[in-house]
Every structure is written in structure tokens, then in C-alpha cells.
Design goal:
Blueprint: H1 2-21, H2 33-45, H3 49-59, H4 68-84, E1 87-93, E2 102-115, E3 119-120, E4 124-125, E5 136-142, H5 148-151, E6 162-164, H6 184-192, H7 255-270, E7 274-277, E8 302-304, H8 307-318, E9 324-335, E10 340-346, E11 351-361, H9 371-391, E12 397-404, H10 412-421, E13 423-425, E14 460-462, E15 469-474, E16 482-486, H11 494-500, E17 511-513, H12 522-526, E18 532-537, H13 542-546, H14 559-578
Parallel strand pairs: 5-6, 6-7, 7-8, 11-12, 11-15, 15-18, 16-17
Antiparallel strand pairs: 1-10, 2-3, 2-9, 4-8, 5-9, 10-12, 13-14, 16-18
Helix pairs in contact: 2-9, 2-14, 3-9, 9-14
Length: 596
């Protein structure tokens, strides 16, 4: 009898250990497999996602926020969703302009080395920088000085020159495969072994959790979503040795931005024609960006070119061989452009006042067509809405799509929407005269609203719809197939999603991880305590060669992955819409705590 008792206790203990390592599952999730199969059949056999992607990336591109093409793309999306029978489809203006006082397009770009031997220079002007006012010609000069003291040596010597602003980079070969899918082992590690600091969905500053390392040449940090690496490979940067005092920040500027502005002001005052920069990744690839606050009256033409042409010019200059560059760049500014998001709905039935949201960002950078960042997210979510409408599946809650503007400038469009409809953090009260500023980062600029990335850090102001949102789902990590979902630290949602992915395992969806991923519009929702989720997606070529580069075109999209992504998003929207209860929420974020 005693022996049997010991055996029973051992068995119970073993079962408890087993249960502690297995993913917990909900016990009351109702999954209508008939409807799920309708969605899968429509999404995988009658997909329109690649046709939508061609329209958005071939015809209505690039879509820099505030440009006429952004508005044309929005008009196309609105017309298409109305054609499908969605309701309340419209452009919804932001309450605040968020610094978009002027739109911008590059209308002409020509640049060529004309001596000692002619060769073309492919490239793209940096957004919101001016043109050349016609055809200009001048010698190239390499200036790597960054301090006002060192720049003084060039005073009076740069008039009419093109400035190469950095040393010629070393370009490594692609020694490993560029495109990559998650292995089952990597997905398992993501689920059962959260990286340090990520156990509760907190992403350390500057990191995007969950993606495997891609062996590719280093590149400058992109504007919004930096390449990710496993936590084990992410080590704190070593403290640099003492350096000369950098150029003093301009009024109202901080750190390196102020130093860069002071450097460019020096070049402008000296009468240079413009500046050239590059990226060390080479292979004809370069990364683009821009500053919407740039004043055309005090800004120089700035062009990003591939490392191969940049290096050729720089190496000739090192040999004391003069290089002359000819250029004709035309850019147009548009005062007070329209700034807005696009929304549309499929109305619910008995819970129609409650909302499920799908979204991606409509804007893009301009060196390519924004096909993968984030045209494919936009078209996948549009296709998900089409699938739900075409199949006629019952939706108890209203399903709403949001196509956001100015994600590339800091999730602005989604923050504005969240602040207007759900909740926004207000700017903290100013400290009393003479009192030190509050701990943490300073508040956002006046008039800026919303939660998540880059927003104010004051107390939350809740809106009536706050309690009506069940969940928001986002796609914005390129064309790769969805393999699971990040919980953003929302443990209570885990058992629900683990049941939901069962009918999707045949499509490769296997993983639910507690981890957080950063830098996409789901943070605007998560930042105010709403359930906002980003899917785990295969890396494919996204961070290696696509993200914010001149290769972000239709050719990089993977059709089968795109069809899967739209179908999976439709399934998640369907299940969220028809669940008896809304998706549970995690505790509200602490006031003053930022996201990535």
C-alpha cells in the first residue's frame, strides 16, 4: 500500500512537470471548422492578394507620407473596399499635423561622373531635400570631419563641390544564404526560452525580438524597424574612447542630430552643391530616409548612392585623381498636404458595437515602391477583409481595417487614430519653476498625441471606444509567411491563441510566444493597454536586403506566403469577432514607460 502511494505521488509529480513545460490550452474556445475551411478555400484558391499588391506597388507607389501618390493610393484602396461591399470606408484626417507642413516628391534624378571617365551614378535623393535648380557640375571632395574644429580646415575650399560625407566602406560578401525561414528549433526556442528581459514582453531599447540573425553586411540603423538578432548575440556596445568635441547641437536639437545639422549648415554656408552618402552593405543596395522637418531654404541636396559607385569615386580621390560629377535633380514641395489614415468596416451582428481591427501602414519610403514595407501588409489585410466578405461567414463583432500613414516617421498615423478613438497619453504637467525635470525621456513635441512608439508619456485619457476593442492585429515584417504570434507579454491571450492555431498548423502556424516585437503599429495599441499583436513572420530577405532599401519592389514578394498571410489574418479576425468574450488585456503600462 505504501509502495503504491509512492508510485501515485511520483506519477502526479511527473504529470505536473509535464504540464509545466507544455503550452497551456483554453478549454472553452469554439472553433467553427466549416467557416474556417470556407476562409481557407477562398484565401488559397481564389486569392486576389498579388493583384492588389501589383496595383499598390507598381501603379500607386512610392507612397511617402504627404505626397500626392499617398493620396492616390488611399483613393484606390477606398474605392476597392467599397467595391467589395465594406461600409464606413473613408479617409480619416489626423487631429494634429505632427510636423507634416510640406509634402515632397522627387520628380527627376540624374547624376553621372563626367571625368576622368564617364559612368552613371544610381541613387535616390533623401526625402524632403531640395533639387539642384537645373544642371550643375562640380568636383567631388571627401570630407569625413565631424567636429567644428576639424571642419574649419575646409573653410573657403568647398564652394561648388560635391561632398562625400563618409569614408569608403568595406563591403563584405554574402557568405551565407540571404533568405531564411524559421526552423522548428528556432520557433520552439522562441516559445519556451524567452530572451533575457523579454519574459514579460519588454523589449530592450533598440531591439526587435524574435528574428534570427542574418549573416549580411552591416548597414546603418533603419528609420523604424532595425534588423533583429537573437538575444545571445546582442551585447551592449563598448564605451568609446574619448573623442574630439562634436559640432554643437543646433537650437532645439539633441545629440547626433544637432551635430549633423551643424555640419550640414557649415557645408551650406560654404556653397557646396550637395552631399553624397552610402551604405556598407554594397551589392547595389542602399538605405533611404529623410527628415520631414527639413527646411528647403536651409537644406542641401542630399543623395544616397550604392557603395560600388561611392567607393570608386572615393578611391580615385585617394589617388589624387580629380573626379567631376554632373547632376540634375528636381524635387517638388507641397504645402500643408493631407494627413490621414484609411478605415473601413464589415459590420457585426449581436456584438456590432464591439470591434476587431486589422491593419498595416500605407506609407512607404521612396527609393523603391514599398512592396514589402508595408505594401504587402496593406494588401494582405485588405484581402483578409475581402475573404470575410466573400465567404459570408457570420461576424458577431464589427471587423475594421486601418491603413496607417506616417508609420515610417514614428507610428504617427496609428497613434493619432488610437488617441482619437481609444486612449492617448497626454503631455506630462510641466514641473514647477526651478524644479528638475521628471525622470525618463522628455515629452513629445507640442500637439503630439497617442501611445506607443514616440508618443507623450503623461496620464492616459480614455475615450468611449476604449472598452469596445477586442484586439488589433498587424502585419509589417515583410512578405514572409506567418508562423505564429507575439503575445506582447499578454499571458492570458496565450491559451486562446494556442487553440486557434490548431486549424492553421497545416499552413505552418505553430508558435505562440510571450515575447514582444517592436517598431510596428501594434505598439500604438499596446502602449495604451489595448491588445495589439504582431504576427511572427519568416525573415525571408526582409532585413538582409529589403527593409528601407532600393530593392523593396514587387519582385521581392512571395505569392504563396502572401496568400497564407491574408488567410491567417482573416481566420484570426473571424475567431476574435465570434468569441463570446473579448480578448483579455494585460495590466496597463506604467506611466512614463516607453516601448521600443
Amino acid at each position: 500500500m505504501k509502495k503504491n502511494r509512492v508510485s501515485v505521488l511520483a506519477l502526479v509529480a511527473a504529470m505536473m512537470v509535464l504540464l509545466s513545460i507544455l503550452p497551456l490550452r483554453a478549454t472553452n474556445e469554439v472553433i467553427n471548422y466549416t467557416d474556417i475551411n470556407k476562409i481557407k478555400t477562398e484565401g488559397m484558391q481564389r486569392s486576389q492578394v498579388m493583384e492588389l499588391s501589383s496595383w499598390l506597388s507598381d501603379v500607386y507607389a512610392p507612397r511617402l507620407m504627404g505626397s500626392p501618390m499617398y493620396t492616390k493610393a488611399a483613393d484606390w484602396a477606398i474605392a476597392k473596399m467599397k467595391e467589395w461591399g465594406l461600409v464606413n470606408v473613408k479617409a480619416e484626417p489626423w487631429v494634429n499635423r505632427n510636423g507634416f507642413d510640406r509634402g515632397w516628391t522627387n520628380d527627376k534624378y540624374y547624376m553621372e561622373v563626367v571625368s576622368p571617365e564617364p559612368f552613371p551614378i544610381p541613387g535616390t535623393p533623401t526625402a524632403w531635400t531640395p533639387g539642384t535648380n537645373g544642371l550643375v557640375r562640380g568636383e567631388a571632395v571627401l570630407v569625413t570631419a565631424t567636429t567644428l574644429e576639424d571642419l574649419a580646415a575646409y573653410k573657403g575650399k568647398l564652394k561648388g563641390k560635391w561632398i562625400l560625407t563618409q569614408a569608403v566602406p568595406d563591403v563584405a560578401a554574402y557568405w551565407t544564404v540571404i533568405s531564411k525561414r524559421y526552423t522548428l528549433d528556432e520557433l520552439a526556442a522562441m516559445e519556451f526560452n524567452p530572451a533575457p528581459g523579454l519574459e514579460f514582453g519588454v523589449t530592450p531599447p533598440g531591439q526587435r525580438a524574435g528574428a534570427p540573425i542574418i549573416a549580411a553586411p552591416a548597414a546603418p540603423a533603419p528609420q523604424a524597424k532595425p534588423a533583429a538578432a537573437p538575444a545571445a548575440a546582442q551585447q551592449p556596445a563598448q564605451k568609446p574612447q574619448a573623442q574630439p568635441q562634436p559640432a554643437a547641437p543646433a537650437a532645439g536639437q539633441r545629440g547626433g542630430f544637432g551635430a549633423a545639422n551643424a555640419r550640414n549648415e557649415f557645408f551650406r554656408a560654404e556653397g557646396v552643391l550637395g552631399t553624397l552618402s552610402t551604405a556598407p552593405r554594397g551589392h547595389g543596395i542602399y538605405t533611404i530616409g529623410g527628415n520631414r522637418a527639413a527646411d528647403p531654404a536651409t537644406t542641401l541636396p542630399a543623395v544616397v548612392i550604392p557603395a560600388e559607385q561611392y567607393g570608386r569615386i572615393g578611391r580615385m580621390l585617394a589617388k589624387k585623381v580629380p573626379v567631376t560629377i554632373e547632376a540634375d535633380i528636381k524635387s517638388t514641395y507641397y504645402p500643408n498636404p493631407q494627413v490621414f489614415n484609411v478605415v473601413g468596416e464589415l459590420p457585426g451582428t449581436d456584438k456590432a458595437d464591439e470591434i476587431v481591427m486589422l491593419g498595416g501602414h500605407l506609407d512607404s519610403w521612396h527609393a523603391a515602391t514599398g512592396a514589402a514595407d508595408d505594401g504587402c501588409g496593406v494588401t494582405a489585410m485588405m484581402e483578409a477583409m475581402r475573404i470575410l466578405k466573400a465567404t459570408g461567414v457570420k461576424l458577431r463583432r464589427t471587423v475594421r481595417i486601418g491603413l496607417w500613414g506616417a508609420e515610417e516617421q514614428g507610428l504617427i498615423g496609428s497613434r493619432e487614430y488610437v488617441a482619437a478613438h481609444f486612449a492617448g497619453r497626454q503631455a506630462p504637467a510641466a514641473p514647477a519653476a526651478g524644479a528638475p525635470p521628471a525622470a525618463g525621456a522628455p515629452p513629445a513635441a507640442a500637439g503630439q498625441r497617442g501611445g506607443g512608439f514616440g508618443g507623450p508619456l503623461g496620464p492616459l485619457e480614455f475615450k468611449p471606444e476604449y472598452d469596445k476593442l477586442s484586439a488589433y492585429y498587424n502585419i509589417d515584417n515583410g512578405t514572409g509567411a506567418i508562423r505564429g504570434i507575439y503575445l506582447q507579454g499578454n499571458d492570458a491571450a496565450g491559451p486562446i491563441f494556442r487553440e486557434w492555431i490548431e486549424p492553421l498548423r497545416g499552413m505552418g502556424v505553430t508558435t505562440v510566444t510571450i515575447r514582444n516585437t517592436g517598431g510596428t503599429d501594434h505598439q500604438s495599441f499596446d502602449g495604451v493597454g489595448l491588445p495589439g499583436f504582431q504576427f511572427i513572420q519568416d525573415e525571408t530577405e526582409y532585413n538582409a536586403i529589403i527593409h528601407h532599401t532600393n530593392l523593396d519592389t514587387y519582385e521581392r514578394l512571395q505569392p504563396n506566403d502572401m496568400m497564407k498571410d491574408a488567410t491567417i489574418a482573416a481566420v484570426f479576425a473571424y475567431l476574435t469577432a465570434n468569441r463570446e468574450d473579448k480578448i483579455p488585456r494585460k495590466p496597463l503600462p506604467i506611466q512614463g514607460q516607453r516601448g521600443r
